[in-house]
Structures are given as C-alpha cells and as structure tokens.
C-alpha cells in the first residue's frame, strides 16, 4: 500500500487494490454526500438524547422528551374518541327506534356495531351474522323474539335464558319424549314437516295434526305461526334453527335443546348494545 | 431559412478592425480540456448579459412560463353553486382535480397519467429534433436561475463588476449588495412556494389565511420547503443541479442522433483562431472566422467553452450563439460561427474543410472567391426535422392525445358500481325466497343535484329493498343524488322461491337520469343455493 498508483487515463489515484489486474479508482465521495453522512451521525446522537435509546442494566434511557409509543397511542385514542363523542352522546341519550331514523347517527351506530359484532358475536353467529344450526341467522326476516330495533335491543341487552339477568328472555319447551308416545311424536313431526312441504316418511301428518292441536298450539299457535312473546318459533316457514327435516324435528320434540345468549349490557355497556342493535337491524331482516 | 447566413455579409464592413471587438480575458470554469479534480470546490461562474434573438426568445419564454405559474391559480371559472370557482384546482381534501371545464375524479386519474405520457413523448420529440431545448429554455431550473441572474446583475452589476465585488474585501458596499441580493432571492423563493400552494386551495381565501396565520401548517411548511429549494437551487447551486443532480440530461444525451440540432461551434470556418486577420494575412497565415474574443465563454451560464465541442454541461441555451453573432456582425462576417447544427451537417462541412481529414482545417476551402460559402457547404434544412424517428414520436404523441380527447368527450358523468355481499352470499327468507345483498354506489359526477332512478333489468319477479328508504319493495327507486358526490346504498334483492331458475342468474342494475337520459349499467349476479333452484322451470 505504500506505493501510490495513479491511473494513467484519468489521472486519479487508485485504492491500491488489484483484482485480476483491475484497479479501483479512489475518487472522492461527493461533498453533499459526505456532509449528509456527517449530519446523519449528528442526528443519530441527538436522537438518543431526546428519545428513549440506550439500554441500561434493567431499563433504558428515557430521553429528555420522555416519549413512549404507549402514551402516543393513548393520546391518539383520546383524540379519536373526542371526535366520536358527539355521536356517542346522542346514541347514549336516544332510544334505538329513534337512532335508526337519523341518517348520520344510523350510519355511525351501524359502523360501530359492526366492529363490536366482529369482536363479541361472531363466535356463535358467524362473521357474516349468518348463524348455523342452533345459532340464529341474523340476516333473515325470521325473528324468535321480534325484529324491530327496540326488540333486537332488548334481546341483546338482557340475553336469552341468562341466569344472571332477571329481565332475560325465557322460554322452555317441555321434553315431549316424556309426555307423548313415540308414535305421537312421529306423527306430530310428520305434520310439522308437511306444513312447510318437507318430505314425510315415517309418520302420519293427519294424526299428527290432532297431537299438535292438543299439545303445541298454546305456544306455537293454531297455524304453527309461532309466538314472539314466548320466543316460540314459526314452524310453518322455511327457516329451521335446529335443523330442518323430520329427524331433526323428532329430536327437538323428544328432548328440546335451548340456546343461551348472555346479557350484554353489563359486559359492553348500554351504548355499544344500542349500536349492535342498529347493526343487526340493518342486515336486511330488520322490521 | 438559413441560420448560417441570416444576413448578407456586409461588404463594406469586411475590413472592420478586429480591434473593435472587446476581447475578454476568460477561462471556461468547466473546461472540457482541463477537467478539474472532483476534490476541488466549485468555482463561481459570472455569466455576462447576452443580447440577441435567442436571448429575446428566452425572455419571452420566461415571461410566459412564470406568468402561467404565478397567475394560474388566480383565474376564476364559474361552475355553479356546488363546485369551486377556481379554474385550476387540485382539491386533495375532496379528491377532485379541476381544470377549467374539466373535472377529474380519482378513478379518472389516467387522464393525468396520459398527459404525463404525452409530456414524455413530447420531450423525446423535441429532444430528437432540436436537442436539449427543454433544458435551455423551459426547465424551471433554467428559468429561475435566469430570474436570479437578473436580480444579481441589477444589484451587483454585470460580469466584471461582479467578479471585482467577489474578490473585494468586505466593506459596507459589499455587505449591502450581498444582503439585498440574497433578500430578493429569498423573496422570490417565498413567492414561488407561495404560488405553489394556491393550486391546492381557494387562492384568495388561502392568501387571506396566510397573512392572518390561519392557514394550515402544511401550507407554511410547503412554502418553507419550496423557498429553501428555490433559493438553494436557483441562487447557490445553479449549474451544479443540471450537471450533478438532474438525471434528465443523461437521458436526453441518449435521445440525440446525427440529425438532431445542437449548439455547435463550426470550427470548419472558425479555425485556426486568430486575433487579427490583417496581421495573419501579413504573416501569410490562414485565418478562420474565430477571433478568440471569448464572448461565447463569458456569457455561458454553465461555464463551458462551446468551442471544445459538445459537452455534457451544455444546456443549449444558445446564449453563446447570440454573443458570437454580435461579434460576427461587428466584424461584418457571416453570422452562425456558433449555431444550431446537426452532427451530420457538421461532419460533412468538416470533411470539406479538412479534405476528408487529409490536412488541418483550411477555412478558405469552404468559401468561394467572393467570400460566399461554397455550395458544397451544408446548411440547416427544416426538412431534417421530419424523419422517421420524429414522425414516430409525433405519431405516438398525437395518438395518446387523440385517445385522451375521445375518452374525455365520451366519458360518463353518471356511474353505478356494485359490490355483491360475499358473507353471506345469499340469505333464505322465512317464506322461502332468496335474498342477495349488494352495496350500490351511484356516482353523480356533475356539480348539480340529480334524481337518479335505480332499477333492475332481468331477474324476473325480483324486488329491491333499500336500507333507510321508506318505500315498499319495488323494482325501481328514485335516489336523490347530491351534487358532485357518490351515494352509497345497501340494496337487498329478493327473488321468490318459484322464480329461482339457476344458482347463478345474471341481471343488471340500471342507474338513469330521466331528465337527460344519461344512464349507466352494472352487470351483476344473483346467487342462490343449489337446493333452492326450481327444477320444474329449468
């Protein structure tokens, strides 16, 4: 390295390194680049003074501005909720039936409800609120306890068969396996299946009609149209919460299964429950 | 048209003394012959004021371009009560771009992309025809440096006075001249940044807000940044921006060919240089037209000597042509010793002057006995601009332009976009009918409120229900569309069980403005579970 080699063609010194006879010119770095580089070094050191940087044994230097991402996030969330406050306050003060009539409130509440739905409701009702066997589809126009915004709100607020909430919605269908003879169960199941034109194979619908009139009309109604005050499902329509078909009906008559939904007000607060009600009401089946 | 011999040579002046010509003692700062080491700090360039037709042209270009830039946002254009009345406005907050009678929504940004493509091909065309004309005349860097030089000359004087002032020790005079020069430069910078922001908001209102400190922070920050860049690039860095920072000169270099016009020193008539023809004649020497007065060197804003040939620094501003033409005029010789010339012409003339390279340049060969140019000397011919390459660029440029124009004139101002719900894809209703959910967006792209009729075409028996509208299910809804806005609707389409013929049925949403018959169609699909398909009708 002692010998300084100067490239003949350009008159520029080389670095002294040779690769297969090729030498590298030792051209200077552009001045602006060098100064930018120095500025970056100064910036980096200054940064460590103002911001948290150097690791210590158990903690780290906090920097004289004492910035933490957690505090920044908190500030941003506070600022964001400040912007939402106008809407949230109105939602808190108004009944759900009035919220859905106000265009901007309705939009805000539905969007907030959609977010709350994703977090709290999808495990049972599905991400599209489409439900599954035993868990109601919230998109359709079939409602066990009523499909108006206020009725949906009450259902979400107090839950269904929630032992913690005294105002919860309660209904219980007896286990007819202990009351009716097996043949009567077959016949009544055949009758119910026939109401919605499902294929009948094992029972006699005509005989089942009598069994139905004696045992079922009190709750499900004389046309099997259901009763929303009791949460008794409509048995004449196309929607079957516990599964359609004769076998599913027989199973439900013999030993009914009853779904449980918790009361949500205590968990989410009244405003979020209202927002959820607005969202569910907007899904297409709302009355 | 003949650039070389714009004027007939003045016979009576042909004996003019070369002594009439001011000889400048100047060295090109960025000499092509002596490349200074890159370690060396920049040497200042003190361009002398040039006069002539290219300088005139550059003044006009400066006036027009700066005029457009500074006054553009102040032009008003009435669009009615529902749209801003600023002719040129980039409304970022509302995602709109206004240009006189044209309004562009974000999804129509391809118009801007098309204009950029046209600008690109336009530059290719200009460059292949007349060289780096963009750099020399219209580039903002060139225009603003020119403006800054006007200020510099006004305060500090022309080249010699400035050089003297630069060398002089600090004195009261030097301090006030320097302070006032930089102050004016910064003021120009502020107004440059200030003009920029007016394109993004209502100009009169923003100006008022600026002065009362009510304008948004980003406005002040933008002015600050553009003031800094204008001052630094135009006042301090100048030719270094073109030589070291800008990528465009390198691209333009590749666009040139042997038929492109570039600023050329015609050494086939200029060499050998001599300080005096009479003296040369007395000594029996051959003398070219160049009297080595360095006028071309001192006017050059890039600090080069054009007589060293085409160089990367040269922005072809043509000021050396003006300077040289002035000198040739005084001497009574043909103008155009430095001129716009093509490499092909230049090579042909060089071959003539050197006997195809057999000997040194003999400028006598290119002239006949009368002193006129030999008829074998090639002169610039306008026809050279129309060659395959430039015609191709012109064709592409025009094709894109016509395409944009057709697209602009035939574009829809009413659009309907539809998004099919995917989760759930369909919903079974209690009466057995099937429902699909759609998010329908109706775009009313004119600044007037309209009533748009949204209706279904196809899908027999289907009805619509729209969230938030108190209207019974129907196949047609009247939608109130706000001016220049999109309205988003949640639409549920329901088909009775006995009308479902396929698990995938095609139909259309039609949005129509009954008053103007303007309409748009969206082809949509109605999905049903396979089990619900009515086989009797199938």
Count of runs of 4 or more consecutive helical residues of chain A: 12
Can you tell me the residue ranges of chain B where pLDDT is under 50 for at least 5 consecutive residues?
1-16
- The parts of chain A where pLDDT drops under 50 for at least 5 residues are none
Number of strands of chain A: 2
Largest sheet of chain B: 5 strands, antiparallel
Structure description:
The complex is a heterodimer of chains A (287) and B (538). Chain A has twelve helices and two strands. Chain A has 287 residues and is mainly alpha-helical. Chain A has three domains: 1-47, no CATH class; 89-168 and 263-281, Cytochrome c-like domain (Cytochrome Bc1 Complex, Chain D, domain 2), CATH 1.10.760; 182-254, Cytochrome c-like domain (Cytochrome Bc1 Complex, Chain D, domain 2), CATH 1.10.760.10. In chain A, strands 1-2 form a two-stranded antiparallel ribbon. By secondary structure, chain B is an alpha+beta fold. Chain B folds into three domains: 44-254, no CATH class; 259-380, no CATH class; 414-537, Immunoglobulin-like (Sandwich), CATH 2.60.40.10. Chain B contains 16 helices and 14 strands. Mean pLDDT of chain B is 89; it is low at 1-16. Classes of the chains: A mainly alpha (287), B alpha+beta (538). Chains A and B meet through loops of A and strand 7 of B.
Which keywords apply here?
A: 287 residues; mainly alpha; Cytochrome Bc1 Complex, Chain D, domain 2; 3 domains; two-stranded antiparallel ribbon; 2 strands; B: 538 residues; alpha+beta; Immunoglobulin-like; five-stranded antiparallel beta sheet; 14 strands
List the helices and strands and how they pair.
The complex is a heterodimer of chains A (287) and B (538).
Chain A: E1 14-19, E2 22-25, H1 31-50, H2 69-93, H3 96-99, H4 103-120, H5 122-125, H6 149-158, H7 182-195, H8 205-215, H9 217-220, H10 246-254, H11 265-268, H12 270-281
Antiparallel strand pairs in A: 1-2
Chain B: H1 53-71, E1 88-91, E2 96-99, E3 102-104, H2 110-130, H3 133-138, H4 140-156, H5 159-167, H6 172-197, H7 203-211, H8 217-237, H9 239-245, H10 248-255, E4 261-265, H11 267-270, H12 277-282, H13 295-298, H14 319-331, E5 338-342, H15 343-353, H16 388-409, E6 414-420, E7 427-428, E8 434-444, E9 450-457, E10 463-466, E11 476-481, E12 485-495, E13 504-513, E14 518-527
Antiparallel strand pairs in B: 1-2, 2-3, 4-5, 6-8, 7-8, 8-12, 9-11, 9-13, 10-12, 13-14
């Amino acid at each position: 390295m002692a010998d300084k080699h100067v490239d003949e063609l350009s008159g520029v010194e080389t670095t002294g390194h040779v690769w297969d006879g090729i030498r590298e010119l030792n051209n200077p770095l552009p001045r602006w680049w060098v100064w930018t580089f120095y500025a970056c070094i100064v910036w980096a050191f200054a940064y460590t003074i103002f911001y948290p940087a150097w690791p210590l044994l158990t903690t780290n230097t906090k920097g004289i501005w004492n910035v933490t991402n957690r505090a920044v996030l908190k500030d941003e969330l506070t600022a964001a909720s400040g912007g939402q406050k106008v809407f949230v306050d109105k939602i808190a003060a108004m009944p759900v039936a009035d919220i859905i009539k106000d265009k901007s409130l309705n939009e805000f509440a539905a969007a907030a409800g959609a977010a709350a739905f994703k977090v709290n409701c999808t495990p049972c009702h599905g991400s599209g609120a489409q439900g599954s066997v035993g868990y109601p589809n919230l998109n359709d126009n079939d409602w066990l306890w009523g499909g108006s915004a206020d009725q949906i709100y009450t259902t979400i607020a107090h839950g269904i068969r929630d032992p913690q909430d005294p105002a919860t919605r309660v209904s219980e269908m007896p286990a007819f396996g202990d009351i009716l003879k097996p043949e009567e169960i077959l016949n009544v199941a055949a009758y119910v299946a026939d109401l919605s034109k499902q294929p009948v194979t094992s029972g006699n619908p005509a005989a089942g009609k009598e069994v139905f009139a004696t045992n079922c009309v009190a709750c499900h109604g004389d046309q099997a149209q259901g009763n929303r005050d009791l949460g008794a499902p409509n048995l004449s329509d196309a929607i079957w919460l516990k599964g359609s078909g004769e076998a599913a009906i027989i199973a439900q008559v013999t030993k009914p299964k009853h779904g449980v939904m918790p009361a949500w007000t205590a968990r989410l607060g009244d405003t979020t429950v209202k927002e959820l009600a607005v969202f569910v009401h907007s899904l297409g089946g709302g009355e | 048209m003949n650039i070389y011999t714009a004027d007939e040579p003045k016979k009576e002046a042909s004996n003019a003394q070369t002594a009439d010509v001011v000889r400048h003692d100047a060295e090109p700062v960025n000499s092509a012959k002596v490349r200074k080491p890159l370690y060396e700090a920049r040497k200042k360039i003190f361009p002398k004021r040039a006069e002539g037709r290219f300088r005139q042209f550059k003044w006009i270009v400066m006036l027009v371009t700066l005029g457009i830039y500074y006054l553009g946002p102040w032009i008003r254009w009435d669009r009615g009560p529902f749209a801003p009345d600023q002719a040129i406005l980039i409304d970022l907050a509302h995602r709109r771009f206004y240009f006189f009678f044209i309004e562009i929504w974000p999804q129509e940004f391809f118009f801007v992309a098309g204009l950029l493509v046209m600008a690109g091909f336009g530059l290719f065309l200009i460059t292949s025809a007349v060289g780096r004309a963009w750099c020399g005349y219209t580039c903002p860097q060139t225009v603003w440096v020119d403006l800054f030089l006007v200020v510099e000359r006004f305060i500090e004087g022309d080249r010699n006075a400035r050089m003297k002032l630069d060398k002089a020790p600090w004195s009261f005079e030097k301090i006030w001249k320097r302070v006032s020069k930089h102050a004016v430069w910064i003021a120009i910078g502020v107004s440059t940044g200030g003009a920029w922001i007016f394109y993004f908001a209502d100009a009169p209102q923003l100006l008022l807000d600026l002065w009362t400190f009510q304008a948004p922070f980003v406005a002040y920050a933008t002015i600050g940044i553009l003031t800094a860049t204008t001052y630094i690039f135009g006042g301090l860095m100048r030719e270094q921006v073109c030589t070291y920072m800008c990528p465009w000169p390198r691209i333009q270099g590749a666009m040139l060919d042997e038929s492109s016009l570039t600023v050329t020193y015609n050494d086939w008539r200029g060499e050998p240089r001599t300080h005096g023809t009479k003296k040369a004649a007395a000594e029996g020497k051959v003398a070219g037209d160049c009297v080595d007065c360095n006028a071309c060197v001192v006017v050059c804003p890039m600090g080069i000597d054009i007589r060293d040939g085409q160089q990367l620094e040269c922005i072809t501003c043509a000021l050396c042509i003006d300077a040289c033409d002035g000198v040739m005029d005084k001497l009574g010789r043909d103008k155009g010793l430095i001129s716009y010339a093509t490499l092909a012409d230049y090579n042909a003339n060089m071959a003539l002057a050197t006997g195809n390279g057999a000997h040194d340049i003999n400028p006598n060969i290119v002239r006949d006995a009368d002193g006129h140019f030999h008829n074998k000397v090639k002169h610039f011919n306008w026809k050279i601009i129309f060659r395959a390459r430039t015609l191709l660029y012109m064709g592409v440029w025009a094709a894109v332009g016509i395409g944009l124009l057709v697209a602009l004139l035939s574009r829809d101002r009413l659009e309907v976009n539809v998004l099919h719900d995917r989760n759930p894809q369909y919903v079974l209703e209690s009466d057995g009918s099937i429902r699909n959910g759609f998010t329908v967006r109706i775009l009313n792209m004119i600044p007037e409120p309209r009533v748009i009729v949204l209706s279904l075409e196809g899908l027999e028996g289907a009805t619509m229900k729209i969230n938030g509208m108190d209207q019974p299910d129907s196949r047609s809804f009247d939608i109130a569309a706000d001016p220049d806005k999109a309205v988003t609707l949640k639409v549920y389409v329901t088909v009775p069980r006995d009308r479902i013929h396929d698990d995938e049925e095609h139909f259309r949403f039609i949005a129509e403005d009954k008053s103007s018959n303007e309409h748009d169609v969206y082809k949509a699909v109605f999905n049903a579970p396979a089990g619900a398909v009515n086989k009797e009708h199938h």
